[in-house]
């Protein structure tokens, strides 16, 4: 069947869509498409991931868990590791990770492989949509030109578009279905086809002139956030030096109805976007010898934040006359963000490693992360931290399920709040109520 760029409908029924990559973006996208009436082929190279999805053992919002249960019980959602299955699809949506390597340069391994496979197995009339964040020109380099080399006429017998993902994991207010989506097609027919396909999965679809505009918009979004996170942490430290609590100052500034958006301090940036995406922009600008000193400085500040937190913890231990090699330190929350189980790029990993390197006996409490490896050391979630003696407790990520009232007791251990929220009250210690997210806590 051929995908009609003027309609989501094909022969009176929904299209068959192959979603390549079933991670934090691909799986919700696949479920939204299934919910909208499409038949979805979920393609992922990881047998473990496919097994977890089949069992429902994945980190999703309750809404998406319900969608997964419904989809799994029907006949319009199937899982496969076979990349050639995309040949059966009217549309292909590529949702693979785009991390950075140890040198903070783009790691395009998964993206290049997924795009090459999509090009190899492309069929006439097919729509291919790339959602993975990357450098400006990725869609043209990895899809448009290779398809032309295969003999296709892009925007006539195959359609190509870039539509960056906008997913805020763990946030029920910002589900993809409630969020506007950008679409930049390789031509007008490609734009219409992609907009028709994705319309049921977003609050509104906003066409932009070309894939490059959509690619740069995504990089701009997350670079903006990275810079403001660095600024929030720097000004929070300034407040600390001046004897002020940062959060009341931020809330006071936020009463201005224009020209200001509140960002809150935290232990650093984590997750799949903020620590990675801006480096794609810097990498590309470096190739054309264009400097972006403000962005580079902000990224360096964010990268250095966990080390500053680690040193602050060691300073507190020293002030309490507790040698680091005898210290028992508990970290509250190790995922990068409240309400999710994802530890990718989490500042907690570096903080734990730094404290352990100084000789401290480290542990963590995070019911969403049962176990964790820090270097050669295997750690496990401590379910009852209030029953153990600690020389220092570091508040890193406070999940809604955390009850920290034990830290309000008169005999409670010293607390280092990386979010600089001020004295911990019983009201704030119960399930994180009224606590704004940390600056680097969103994806």
Automatic annotation (TrEMBL):
Coiled coil region boundaries: none
Keyword NAD: yes
Biased composition (Basic and acidic residues): 166-180
NAD among keywords: yes
Pfam families in alphabetical order: UDPG_MGDP_dh (PF00984), UDPG_MGDP_dh_C (PF03720), UDPG_MGDP_dh_N (PF03721)
Record InterPro entries: 6-PGluconate_DH-like_C_sf, NAD(P)-bd_dom_sf, UDP-Glc/GDP-Man, UDP-Glc/GDP-Man_DH_C, UDP-Glc/GDP-Man_DH_C_sf, UDP-Glc/GDP-Man_DH_dimer, UDP-Glc/GDP-Man_DH_N, UDP_ManNAc/GlcNAc_DH
Keywords: NAD, Oxidoreductase
Domain called UDP-glucose/GDP-mannose dehydrogenase C-terminal: residue spans: 330-423
Gene3D superfamilies on file: NAD(P)-binding Rossmann-like Domain
Region (Disordered): 166-187
Highest taxon above the source species: Bacteria
Similarity comment: family membership: Belongs to the UDP-glucose/GDP-mannose dehydrogenase family.
NCBIfam families: NDP-sugDHase
Protein name as catalogued: Nucleotide sugar dehydrogenase
Organism: Streptomyces violaceorubidus
